[in-house]
């Protein structure tokens, strides 16, 4: 694997001083639940272990945020003069069971196996991808990248030691750690052993003496390619035993620092402590350091919800990887970080501007005493921030204070590059000169002449043309300049969140109806629905379509239609916002007296709008729809085709008055998947004392739901459950809201 080398700044005596002031590193220790002064077991040397990647998928940006935290920690330690020995494991033994692969639960791995690739080849592919990602983020390579598959003998020996000492037992070729035998179990996570649930990531195992016991060695199932001989038969190591065996082999006992994400605290790190300390009767790790979660648009990342991003996804949008590093530097590692594309664009701008400040310009000279004092004080504040539980955001703020200061440019550069030895933002990189083709430059010069002649309308037309070609014009005192429009800027007219559009709900209605449609791929379905709406709407209102991150030709087709259809208002999202957030765009922008939320799987076959207008004339009615739901316990809902009052209206078609929306909007944007969002909205309206009506006479036809069809069965269940639990948490106690309480 790769070997790492330390940063190139001058060494200082370990833990002694930075600049002229003694500063001690203090870190939050998950084990003690407090910030402690860091003291390694051996003066001057830090033994650092990081939970590395499981290499059967690409690392996502949440994983990479954790590795950035470790990099800043290591750079800080080395900047303080410590010699760091850093180990980051590679999990490549293939914990996914063979039957899961055969069912296609990991389609990438299943496809690779179908192509004849070996598990080792697949693991090497993703290992290489991970190392490239780390290099692009300026993450210093660990000194050791031990592969789990190369250290199975050490794992078997550790398991054998636990069996011999009475902490583990064997059942049918599986070996389990007996949690009840280790009284300190739970000391890291804070969970009491008696109340712990099973510490594994799969279904309950009937071979265990106690559900809390965890697996040290697993018997190989039929067809498994990666398997090893052991005293208990052929099998493979458990997930937790790998880190203990490799960490202690390369770093000894105890480790100074063990890092990972907060999701590793239980069960992974809790189990590491139990098996390591039970085996050797001594502490395993002195300081546990964990990074918090990264959210995307305010919710947890999940492949099935379409909000998992890799570094390649960022680069495809024109961002440089270090813009993500800069963004992570703005949020403390123990705080949740909410990733949005708008935030990444701001980070890219900030990074480019900070680099401009770090460029070498101006005459060199000897700094004055006051300038030296100012520089020393900035250096002290920078290192004090890092030593205060690795506060990289405060350190970055110090760098900006230097950039904006009145210090001479050469002194600014000197300080910023010293700070960059920890920040790792490549501040010395000079800006790339813009490349402007001659024909584009000629257009810009023609525009400038038109402006000088006072022909502003023609000049503005040329400006729009330049913009469409991917260039922007800047007018200043020194004249006009033309520059390539950065690829990372959002295309004109796109939105990154529902908050990007102003809310008009407080205004008086400007038309009878607003119809809200969400488009996400599957142009034929969108076209069928939209054609039927425009046919029956007439001149009674508007249609707002939110293109919710389509990747096919749906977006261009909608653009073309919007140019010809004045009733259509179109919003393009620069990524998949989630169903509720995309609906909120239409709710904020709609100008109708009545809003019709329509799913594109529905086709209008007659004048729906007159029907809806008549039903909603009754002020006691809150929502009207074609399909209703009934429940007796708020746990099970059944579709009904009977006319009259219902407990909820299904989201295929829901109509409600503007004044009702003012009370219940915005929709809860944690509902990224469409399922059960209709329940949440229905009960929000019922809580206002309004009735919900089902009218089977509405002239509509329901077709197959393409979003449901293209969602994998296991994802359907998981996403539906997640949304239903969200609904149940909010409304499960409100039996009083049912149409017929039981």
Question: Please, could you describe this protein's structure?
Answer:
By secondary structure, the chain is an alpha/beta fold. It is built from 23 helices and 29 strands. A nine-stranded mixed beta sheet has the order 16-19-18-17-20-27-22-28-25, with helices on both faces. Helix 5 crosses helix 6, helix 9 (321-329) crosses helix 10 and helix 14 runs antiparallel to helix 15 (456-468). The longest helix has 19 residues, at 61-79. The protein starts with 25 loop residues before the first strand and ends in an 11-residue tail after the last helix. Residues 1-21 and 195-203 have low confidence and may be disordered.
User: Termini, distance in Å?
Assistant: 66 Å
Helical element count?
23
Overall strand count: 29
Apparent shape: globular
List the helices and strands and how they pair.
Elements: E1 26-29, E2 34-37, E3 45-50, H1 61-79, E4 83-88, H2 98-102, H3 107-114, H4 119-136, H5 152-164, E5 168-171, E6 174-177, E7 214-219, E8 235-237, H6 239-251, E9 255-261, H7 265-280, E10 285-291, E11 294-296, E12 299-300, H8 311-316, H9 321-329, E13 337-339, H10 341-357, H11 369-387, H12 392-403, H13 409-423, H14 438-452, H15 456-468, E14 471-476, E15 479-484, E16 494-495, E17 511-519, H16 523-537, E18 541-547, H17 554-564, E19 568-573, H18 579-589, E20 592-598, E21 602-604, H19 608-615, E22 621-625, E23 628-630, E24 638-640, E25 644-645, E26 648-649, E27 653-657, H20 658-664, H21 677-686, E28 691-694, E29 700-702, H22 706-709, H23 713-731
Parallel strand pairs: 3-4, 3-9, 9-10, 11-13, 16-19, 17-18, 17-20, 18-19, 22-28
Antiparallel strand pairs: 1-2, 5-6, 6-7, 7-8, 11-12, 14-15, 20-27, 21-29, 22-27, 23-24, 23-26, 25-28
Helix pairs in contact: 5-6, 6-7, 9-10, 11-12, 11-13, 12-13, 14-15, 21-23
